[in-house]
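input
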Amino acid sequence: HQVALLTKVQLKYPLTVWLKIETGMHRLGLEETELRDAYHRLKAIPTVAHLILMTHFASSEYKNSDVTLKQIQIIDQRIAK
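output
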């Protein structure tokens, strides 16, 4: 819904958009079926100056956590498709 709004609105200043990705924590974020479409649509909007990907990491305090590495891998796989 929000991506559709951004494609229609005329903005005075460019935006930084945070795209939230579901990677297993089941907090706010787009599922795989929605993610690719939203990502590519946002990248095509001229007023989106920066597109930042984010997720909620289950073990962010542990730099080399297998869970965190798996979540990063999920993001990479979903964006690359």
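quick obs: The helical segments are 2-8, 32-43, 66-80.
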